[in-house]
Amino acid sequence: xxxxxxTRYITFPGDVLKNLTDSELAENYLKRFGYLNTEHRSGFQSxxxxxxxxxxxxxxxxxxxxxxxxxxxLEAMKQPRCGVPDVAN
Amino acid sequence: xxxxxxxxxxxxxxxxxxxLNYSPxxxxxxxxxxxARAFKVWSDVSPLTFTRLFDGEADIMISFxxxxxxxxxxFDGKDGLLAHAYPPGEGLQGDAHFDDDEFWTxxxxxxxxxxxxxxxxxxxxxxxxxxxxxxxxxTTEGRTxxxxxxxxxxNYDKDKMYGFCPSELLYTFGGxxxxxxxxxxxxxxxxxxxxxTTEGRxxGYRWCATTSSFDNDQKFGFCPSRDTTVTGGNAEGxxxxxxxxxxxxxxxxxxxxxxxxxxxWCSTTDNYDDDKKWGFCPxxxxxxxxxxxHEFGHALGLEHSNIREALMxxxxxxxxxxxxxxxxxxxxxxxxxxxTGPDPTPPRPRTTTTPFPDPETDPTEEPTKPTTPTxxxxxxxxxxxxxxxxxxxxxxxxxxxxxxxxxxxxxKMPSGSSDKGVMGPFSVSxxxxxxxxxxxxxxxxxxxxxxxxxSGTRFWVYTGENGLGPRSIEKLGLxxxxxxxxxxxxxxxxxxxxxxxxxxxxxxxxxxxIDAGYPRFTDVMFGGVPSDAHDVFQYxxxxxxxRDRFYWRMNSRRQVDRxxxxxxxxxxx
Lengths: 89, 573
Fold this sequence. Notes:
The complex is a heterodimer of chains A (89) and B (573). Chain A is mostly helical and 89 residues long. Chain A is 33% helix and 2% strand. Chain A contains three helices and one strand. In chain B, helix 1 crosses helix 5. At the A-B interface, strand 1 of A face strand 5, strand 17 and helix 5 of B.
């Protein structure tokens, strides 16, 4: 490998792009696994806040309940897992 | 553990499943085996049985798919979501789907089962040595037909044991060609192909024709993945090409350069910059067995657990051995009850017959005349004869009768009339449905007549036909180091001694708590009995400590006054 060349990141053709920001990743995760319900059955917006949803997620996964998108929480969100929601809708 | 809302569960215990398709990552036999073992995990601890169907609608339909695979919950490429399953019910409910953008293995790298050769289908042994060189993957070295092979022992040079690795040149799976090998080149829609292709398909699976023209013959099969091929990317199923050029640099192994996620990749041609063909390198992969066992938990009615060590915890981790946690077992047994009864065995009738006439002592009888034996007892499997048991799970007195428990069955010796001999076997599950097959100890509280059963770290309490439990023995105040309660001994009213290992504790039955001052050493209080007795019980005012076939009997002055055989003295065999 030739030395001294700076690494650059590229977009690989056919790659499933997951280059989300941390907050996008968290929001997607919380929605996908049922922590952040965006709608009630009646159609009204839910009042579940992100920090409450984070706490629920942290409790479910046995993490420290900070309600913050801390490093441990982000790492947990990136782990391979089952696609069944943690909180039933 | 958690269950789905309304405790969704199957309304029958004989659950069926069907494997709809296979992943190219592993031999179909390995996949079938992984699924069967995953079901066994649950059937080992519950009354459920699983039967595989090969057509029609099964309760649990199992399939592999990528991204949008026909339900409202698409997969997301490699890593991330691995699989999902639906709770019990009709149609899609109960089904389990596995993301085929993952690399499915047994959890520790490519699981390569061989075909042909002389190793009888054994798994490849990596690394192996061939002509002094070490190989960590299948190789075509030493062959002129380009078929990949491997040694099934560490040293081919010494053992000469080998088999062929998955290759489209050897076989295909699925499709309509009965597993025939690819024929290259083949023609598809007027184009000629000299390797497997995903053209013409939207699901990303690589296929080939098994004759020279798909257009003419319509015969095809799916290509198995080689252990050296990439997953994902845009060259799924092709091998890495080393060395390759990327961004002007030359690489002779997989790299994470160019990626922000640290995943290893390679080019499948000599120059990525020119050809842009790439894929992820084979890694440890995900254990299909573990993921399937988890998904089948959903398909049986369990939601995610928040116990990190539980199989039903949502995040994947590789573990060896039996994957269920106490929490998983309690969950499945909450839904379906415990496992009772022995493994199914074909019934073998035992008959007690009148003797055939002896021609010497009964000369009047025609010796060759066929005689019909007279059956005098009901059919009993000899394996279920109490007199054939070397050792019982537990022995205790219930309703004044000595009860002998073994593997979901029990026998009883009627009190005061031992001439009748032992009665049984009877089914534990019929009389005490919640109690699991293996009972480590049991006792009947003399005051309340409640019967306590201990199995592992849990216990159940029965009042007549009504059972409560399981509860953890920790709730009684036993330490979490106690893995089972091996004996129980009434000591006056409301107190019971519980034995485990070399210790015993005193339980206040009314308070449901261990008294202060315990544990104590068994040999201090009960000198002269084995320290590893597995059954302790009181019978006719005397205490019995059993080990294997023998018992040590202790009188009221705590003197061992007899050592004898359980079989002859207690069972009257």
